[in-house]
Amino acid sequence: MSTVELAGELTIHAAAEQAPRLLAALEEKSVLRVRLADVTEIDTAGLQILLLTRREAARIGSTVEFRDASPAVREALAIVHLDPALEAMS
């Protein structure tokens, strides 16, 4: 298992930098845990990165677990009704 911790803003400005990092980590291990406790802001670009990571994991037969979602992440997911889609946000 590999763990990636995302922190700070996960917005359009940072999402492009984080996508390759997440996808590379996903290919290294069959299970990737992404900790979101320190994400202070997230927008649709950030949400797209999370969905992209989940979709890529499914495509290559890996698993991605999103953990410790910050209040900002939980709020954004709830607004767009994606909170059930990105399960395991405990």
From TrEMBL:
Transmembrane segments: none annotated. CDD domains: STAS_anti-anti-sigma_factors (cd07043). InterPro entries: MlaB-like_STAS, MlaB_ABC_Transporter, STAS_dom, STAS_dom_sf. It holds the Pfam family STAS_2. Coiled coil: none annotated. Residues 1-90 form the STAS domain. This is Anti-anti-sigma factor. It comes from Catenuloplanes indicus.
